[in-house]
Amino acid sequence: MKKFLTVGLLSFSLIAHVFADGIVTASSFFDSVSSVYASLRTYEANLDIKAGRTTMSGKVSFKRPDLLRIDFTNPSEQVICFNGDRLTIYLPGSSAILNQSVQANSGANMATSQGLSLMKRYYNIAYEKSSAPVPLSEGSSEQVIKLTLSRKNTAEAFRYIKMAILPESKLIRRIEGITPQGESFVFTFSSYATNVQIPDNRFVYDAPSSANNYNNFLFNE
After folding, report:
1. Whole-prediction pTM
2. Closest CA to 163 of 193, 119, 195
3. What is the pLDDT of residue 164?
4. Is 191 left (phi over 0), alpha (psi -120 to 50) or beta?
């Protein structure tokens, strides 16, 4: 009888071990997403941004290692362009050009391998509920894997970051950053085109000469 119980317990232990080995931790899944973005030469996607009551829409273009451009359709003609060391924002409504020198490793775009690496360094990563795919939004038929990232220290701008990842492609479908004050910034990506040809001059923005320039605007009083 003791021998039977011993064999049974060993079998149960082996089965439990097999199932445990098959579980992908949130950190490992996040690493697999980072690996996908590290392998991308380029991507383009539609982008919707929501901040409070403000909504914006446009098309984002990215080229490795850190070239980024967003051409907005709402607000029309607004542009955000990052050429690796300089961030330029054109605000047509104010006829203003905002320029800012930015470190190449600053993670100017969260949906890149560099941005994801910074998240892994400064945030704890967990599944929102489980590793199983769930609807993107209530009532949606689109399935995603949801992660919640909580900051490790109070120096980070976002207290939490919520991510929705497409299970098959490992591409980011949605990112939501929540500040300590409870403000929410939501970035929704759709209609990805990966590894398409994008020339470098796409990330050289020729702003209207009539616009007013404001340099290093992030540090102005």
Report:
1. 0.82
2. 119
3. 97
4. left
